[in-house]
Amino acid sequence: MDNKADISFLCVKLKELREEKNHCTMEEMAKKLAVLDNGVAPNKSSISRVESGKTSEKTLIEMAKKYCKVFGMTEEQTDQFM
Fold it and tell me: Could you tell me which of 72, 41, 73, 47 has the C-alpha nearest to residue 60?
């Protein structure tokens, strides 16, 4: 990520992807991520921290890729999303 504005923009896009495009609550997202990660899932507060930009850039990018995978995005779509 180039700067703080890019990070903030990605956070907004993650929340939009979860809520508006997939009508998914944080609790539902945690369950979907648990399936993706063999039962290991972040809790609601972890998801909230990611979406509000209160995590490291590395964590944000990793979570963004997981969101894309959970919602069935192709590699190309994920690249465009990022």
Answer: 47
Of the candidates 27, 23, 33, which has an alpha carbon nearest to the alpha carbon of residue 68?
A: 33
Whether residue 40 contacts residue 70, with contact meaning beta carbons closer than 8 Å, is answered with: no
What pLDDT is attached to residue 49? 95
Sequence-distant contacts of 57-62: CB under 8 A, at least 24 apart: 57/1, 57/7, 60/1, 60/7, 60/10, 60/11, 61/1, 61/10
Residues of the chain with pLDDT below 50 are: none
CA–CA distance, 67 with 77 (Å, rounded to integer) = 12
2 phi/psi in degrees, rounded to 5 = -80, -40
Residues in contact with 35: Cβ distance below 8 Å, sequence separation at least 6, in sequence order: 70
